[in-house]
Amino acid sequence: MFTLISKVHPLFFFLILLSLSSSSKASIPEPFFNCISNKFPSDILHEPTNSSYDSVLKSTIHNLRFLNSPKPLAIITPFLYSHVQAAVICTKRVGLQLRIRSGGSDYEGLSYRSEVPFVLLDLQNLRSINVDIEDNSAWVESGATIGELYYEIAEKSPVHGFPAGVYATVGVGGHFSGGGFGTMMRKHGLASDNIINAKIVDVRGRILDRKSMGEDLFWAIRGGGGASFGVIVAWKVKLVHVPPMVTVFDLSKTFEEEALQLLNKWQYIIEHKLPEDLFLAVSIMAIPLPNGNKTLMAGFTSLFLGNSDHLLKIIEENFPDLGLTKEHCSEMSWIESVMHFSGFPRGELRDSLKNRISPLPRTCISTTSDFIQEPLSLNGLEKLWNICTDEENTPIILLFPHGGIMNKISESETPFPYRKGVIYSIIYEVVWDCTNDESSKEYIDGLRRMKKLMTPYVMKQPRGAFFNTRNLDIGKNGGPDTTYWEAKDWGLKYFKDNFRRLAIIKGEVDLENFFYYEQSIPPLISQDEL
Ligand SMILES: Cc1cc2nc3c(=O)[nH]c(=O)nc-3n(C[C@H](O)[C@H](O)[C@H](O)COP(=O)(O)OP(=O)(O)OC[C@H]3O[C@@H](n4cnc5c(N)ncnc54)[C@H](O)[C@@H]3O)c2cc1C
Ligand SMILES: *[C@@H]1O[C@H](CO)[C@@H](O)[C@H](O)[C@H]1NC(C)=O
Ligand SMILES: *[C@@H]1O[C@H](CO)[C@@H](O)[C@H](O)[C@H]1NC(C)=O
């Protein structure tokens, strides 16, 4: 989502080169090799002694904070579902933990780091995509990126699209199973709202589809986080119609240009006044001036599923103070808008969407989120504004509009509960050059301060947070024995009452908690509660 910003201010990103520290001391137990020996070829197993180990491990560590975390005993890069089945069966048999990685974008690095000895299952080679325009659907494997999915859809049709996130290198596996906010969310909902089938390898090593896994498990993996329940190897998504031409604009206003007043108005019109076809997000950040002072800037970023004349008319009627003119607007195909939001310059070849390596240099990053049900008072907006100038660490704040169809989907339809009445979400980010580890604490503390300062103004009880902006500050499991009641504290923040249903489903499909991690759903047996 921050590409909405990074594109405006690429200077926030620094090129950092770090080398991996020494590899871990423990080693794979012999029975593991016996178990896998006739189940998959040796060249999909990367041990620390293999020259491929480092490059595979680092290939999708997008957050440099975790470059020196404890490393896996081995990495498995399956080409076939049977390899995934063997990986689950054999790690379970020898009592090792398994971490599942698709795109590696997890903000806390939980897909590739663990405090206990573990094996990393990296799905980067399971990434085929099959688009069926006649059926209005596509099968996409978890190791694909959303950029690859968008590309394949556009290759087949100029009037089909998919409503997922903005940044091309985000992986399908984590993104779909955690929800998936994007620029068409007001019209089509989350990525996870548009999934119609899936294939999962469960704890017993079976491959199940929607029918054989049942509606409960199928419900859970569409927003409840996949890694608590199994390895989802593929998803069937419903394609959506997009017009042959869409319009985008980026318009920045400084404090001196009444940005605060515009922001205030924005809050009142996004939910009901603007049509579902219009996405209008705002990013707020402090811009350093040449004299060393800072000024604030609000960047209004928009995707409209229609032409610019129509867009201008809507803005003129509802938000004239924005001062939008035809010159601000660019008409383009939907796939070009995808590239625009993903930070590619106009004219860049569409093939770039398939680059699995990010065009932006990797940095350290930490993120958290809030949901807003009542427009912030001017006081609250000023607070948000001041945070940006006061903080040394130039945070980036993104206001992501909900409304539209998000208001019409019930809270229990999928695990993501923040639907009706949520006007927008706030995504806070700090990005830093972490060549020296000492600086990290300052930045992370800065993010914590921001969240604390905003407490009076945001949704409470629970203080909501979006699973895909994962942050361990909201709470975590103490270990595989952590109970539902202990985990409720953080679980309710992501899932509200859906947390209980997730825990019951977890109890049904993985009672022994093999698929455990710091924010996995703990198993709950329904009778426990009686
Ligand atoms: C640059 C950037 C831009 C982003 N933009 C957006 C955005 O626009 N909208 C949005 O909603 N989010 C966005 N995100 C957040 C993103 O959606 C989440 O980080 C998501 O979990 C990433 O999925 P992944 O497969 O890349 O991550 P991974 O790190 O591979 O996985 C994330 C989590 O999912 C689990 N998992 C991964 N694959 C599977 C699988 N196949 N089966 C079971 N469990 C699995 C992992 O174990 C881990 O717990 C962005 C993140 C980054 C870094
Ligand atoms: C790693 O090394 C082992 C032993 O030399 C070899 O059998 C295996 O194929 C190597 N793996 C890869 C991915 O090259
Ligand atoms: C920069 O900040 C200083 C201290 O707040 C102030 O005195 C000065 O006028 C500012 N300069 C500009 C150009 O705004």
SSE layout and pairing:
Elements: H1 3-6, H2 30-36, E1 45-46, H3 52-59, E2 74-76, H4 81-93, E3 97-101, E4 118-122, E5 129-132, E6 137-141, H5 146-156, E7 160-161, H6 172-178, H7 185-188, E8 195-201, E9 207-208, H8 210-220, E10 231-238, E11 240-241, E12 246-254, H9 259-269, E13 278-288, E14 294-304, H10 308-318, E15 329-332, H11 334-341, E16 364-372, H12 378-390, E17 396-401, E18 424-432, H13 438-453, H14 484-495, H15 498-509
Parallel strand pairs: 2-4, 3-4
Antiparallel strand pairs: 1-2, 5-6, 6-10, 7-11, 8-9, 8-10, 12-14, 12-15, 13-14, 13-17, 16-18, 17-18
Helix pairs in contact: 9-12, 14-15
One 2-acetamido-2-deoxy-beta-D-glucopyranose (NAG) binds at residues 291, 293.
- Name of the top-level CATH class of the largest domain: Alpha Beta
- Per DSSP, the total helix count is 15
Give the percentage of residues in beta strands: 15-25%
| Shape type | globular
Largest sheet: 7 strands, antiparallel
Residues in helices, as a percent range: 25-40%
Bound small molecules, deduplicated: flavin-adenine dinucleotide, 2-acetamido-2-deoxy-beta-D-glucopyranose
How many strands? 18
